[in-house]
Design goal:
- This protein has six helices and seven strands; from the N terminus they run H-H-H-E-H-E-H-E-H-E-E-E-E.
- The chain has two domains: about 25-175, NADH Oxidase (3-Layer(aba) Sandwich), CATH 3.40.109.10; about 180-215, putative fmn-dependent nitroreductase like domains (putative fmn-dependent nitroreductase like fold), CATH 2.20.180.
- The strands form two sheets. The protein has a four-stranded antiparallel β-sheet, sandwiched between helices.
- By secondary structure, the protein is α+β, with helices and mostly antiparallel strands.
- Bound molecules: flavin mononucleotide.
- Flavin mononucleotide binds next to strand 3.
């Protein structure tokens, strides 16, 4: 017997217990692990506008300071100017010698995040929630994303005739980087690096993130 409202309604409407769907690879931990910053993408896979719209749709279900919901999104696909954005963004600043992205692996679809109000603390928090939610959605859809903060906002706004000031950009595509996480303590080097074709991302172990420990 269903013990929550939605399941009860389902039973009342359809007269049957909702079939139990086994979660396969979509636990939060699994999505978070797969949600790595890719800087190389499969050039033969062209992300569609419908896919970008599906990713943005998560923003109708996320928290928002004062519930202002002031974020707006300008979508670019390969066919609608995605490649024109490439000279205006910077990837992999910690690996300048690689000059990322490498030819034929460039991202070609983007979500340019803007706001209808001036940027403030709450907007920046909203932005972080929106970006991460969209990245997780992309991963769930079998795609990958990269948050891009290093870009020329003025030129981006002008090039694409966007009414609002761009705050952050998400690149979307089928990521092809081979990425692994490594565990570090807070005093160790945080910089990502590459070795034998693998992109390593150091992450601080969880126990070192907690300020107060049991006596
Ligand atoms: C606020 C923010 C801004 C970022 N800006 C850029 C950027 O401009 N270019 C870039 O290549 N990566 C950028 N990144 C990606 C980070 O470098 C990446 O998250 C970090 O190296 C950790 O890798 P991970 O996302 O796979 O955990 C940004 C990430 C965040 C959260």
């Amino acid at each position: 017997m269903a013990d929550n409202y939605l399941e009860k309604r389902y039973e009342e409407t359809l007269g049957a217990s909702r079939p139990k769907v086994k979660s396969i690879g979509h636990t939060v931990d699994d999505l978070l692990l797969r949600n790595r910053s890719h800087r190389a993408f499969l050039s033969s896979y062209k992300v569609s506008r419908a896919e970008l719209e599906r990713i943005v749709s998560v923003c109708s279900r996320i928290p928002s300071g004062c519930n202002r919901q002031a974020l707006r999104f300008h979508l670019l696909t390969y066919n609608t100017g995605g490649r024109e954005l490439l000279p205006l963004i910077k990837l992999g600043a910690a690996l300048p010698q690689l000059h990322l992205p490498l030819p034929n692996t460039e991202p070609e679809a983007f979500i340019i995040c803007c706001a209808t109000v001036d940027e403030d603390r709450l907007i920046d928090i909203d932005l972080g929630i929106a970006l991460q939610s969209m990245m997780l959605k992309a991963v769930e859809m079998g795609l990958n994303a990269l948050t891009i903060g290093a870009f020329n906002a003025e030129k981006v706004q002008k090039t694409f005739s966007i009414a609002l000031r761009p705050l952050m950009i998400l690149a979307i595509g089928k990521g092809i980087d081979r990425i692994a996480l490594t565990s570090i303590s807070p005093e160790q080097n945080h910089s990502y690096y590459r070795e034998n074709g693998i992109h390593y991302v150091p992450k601080i172990v969880a126990e070192k993130l907690i300020l107060n420990h049991d006596a």
